[in-house]
Design a protein that fits this description.
two-stranded antiparallel ribbon; globular; about 55% helix; about 150 residues; 7 helices; SocA_Panacea; single chain; mainly alpha
Amino acid sequence: MVSANDVAAYILRSAGPMSAMKMQKLAYYAQAWHLVWESAPLFDDRIEAWANGPVILNLYRQHRGRFHLDAWTTGDADKLSPEEQETVDLVIGSYGRFSAQQLSELTHREEPWISARHGLGPSVRSNHEIEPQAMQDYYSAVAANAEAQNV
């Protein structure tokens, strides 16, 4: 299994420079959709339900204080398997056109972030974990609804 550092390195190599917040959200969605498509986590790093949306704590500790990221030197993008690369590429293709703020707002409307915060207001600080099972359940339902509408 790869680490969130490896995924961050792959995202930045593939999509180019971006804000730390956008990279965080893309890594979150990569984890979510990998859980759906492969029935397994992409990485084991903890994801927390912060006020600005999901945050991978390990990544935050490294980019804290830096707004703009050009590369991620603590990860190895080449560690991702072809299937893992495909997941991240599809996420970048689907979500990469959105700004960091738009991605944050999107996560605020989705059940994994909402339920992990246990009723806290949207701007209240939290370090509650977004459980991988909650992500898999929610995004599997999203995928099933999308598939049903395309039939």
